[in-house]
Write a structure and sequence with these properties.
With 272 residues, the protein is an all-alpha fold. The protein has a single domain, classed as P1 Nuclease. The protein is built from eleven helices and two strands; from the N terminus they run αααααααββαααα. Strand 1 and strand 2 form a beta hairpin. The longest helix has 30 residues. The two termini are 29 Å apart. It binds adenine and zinc ion (2 copies).
Length: 272
């Protein structure tokens, strides 16, 4: 995702943190750094030479065959790269943040990675190998050249909501929180639904469940039409996509809160 997605995931999650978790998170942020700023750090880091090793941690390249087959398989899709994927990275960072023998800076970094990866693992094209996760599919978006990956990361959402300003992010977060608590998502945003896999001792299994859910959208919508190359996607396609994007961001925020609560307090806190 871009700034809009990641910052909303983090702000939404902050609304569901148990008090002890909120204190913990605060302890591992820099002075003056918001949880939203911390959630976007990993993309900048991946683009500087020092952090290049972490580039493959932002996705898992499911080598499935959309739109016919969508499935994520850890041994086939993650270990192959040698440098890890979003699933192995989440497992490692979940271990590191709990490791009290690590220095503060390392645990703080693990927190920033977790805040970011819970977001990315819900972006359908961050779970898909085909055409480099859509990066190689050139399309048009409101008459401008773009690639499929970038419109799913940010351009579709921004075409409906504008630039990711602080006000915009707060109002989007409020809207998603309303949908979770009393609206469209209420029946799914439950401990038994979105909260089903929040088991930090089976982090790999949970991350695979989340990645698998995101990957299902690749068959059901993202790459359902086999020929997107060169097409204008700003109209009907974007209108169908925005609902999927918003729900995926809501899911990510809800699960991020549950995950952090599990890490710090040992219960997800989503039913309180
Ligand atoms: N590079 C290779 N595969 C990718 C993906 N699925 N998402 C983002 N970048 C990638
Ligand atoms: Zn992306
Ligand atoms: Zn990323």
């Amino acid at each position: 995702w871009g700034f809009y997605g990641h910052k909303t995931v983090a702000l939404l999650a902050s609304r569901y943190l148990l008090p002890e978790t909120a204190v913990f998170v605060q302890t591992y942020l820099y002075r003056g750094q918001s949880i939203m700023d911390a959630a976007v750090w990993a993309d900048r880091y991946a683009h500087i030479p020092l952090g290049r090793y972490s580039k493959t941690w932002h996705y898992i390249d499911a080598q499935d065959d959309p739109p016919r087959v969508c499935e994520v398989n850890y041994n086939r899709d993650c270990a192959v790269s040698g440098s890890g994927c979003i699933v192995s990275a989440l497992v490692n960072m979940t271990e590191r943040i709990q490791n009290e023998s690590l220095p503060w800076a390392q645990r703080a970094q693990a927190l920033r990675f977790i805040l970011h990866f819970l977001g990315d693992i819900h972006q359908p094209l961050h779970t898909e190998h085909k055409q480099l996760g859509g990066n190689r599919i050139k399309v048009l978006f409101h008459g401008h050249e773009a690639n499929l990956h970038s419109i799913w990361d940010s351009r579709i959402l921004e075409s409906f909501r504008g630039r990711p300003t602080e006000r915009g992010i707060i109002s989007f977060t409020n809207e998603l929180q309303d949908r979770i608590e009393s609206g469209e998502y209420k029946s799914e945003a439950t401990v038994e639904g979105w909260g089903k896999c929040l088991n930090i001792s089976s982090a790999e299994e949970c991350a695979l469940v989340w990645a698998g859910g995101a990957n299902r959208w690749v068959c059901e919508y993202v790459l359902k039409d086999e020929e997107l190359e060169g097409k204008e996607l700003g109209g009907e396609y974007a209108e169908g996509a925005v609902g999927i994007i918003e729900k995926s961001i809501a899911q990510a925020g809800y699960r991020l809160a549950g995950w952090l609560n599990m890490l710090v307090v040992g219960r997800h806190g989503l039913d309180e």
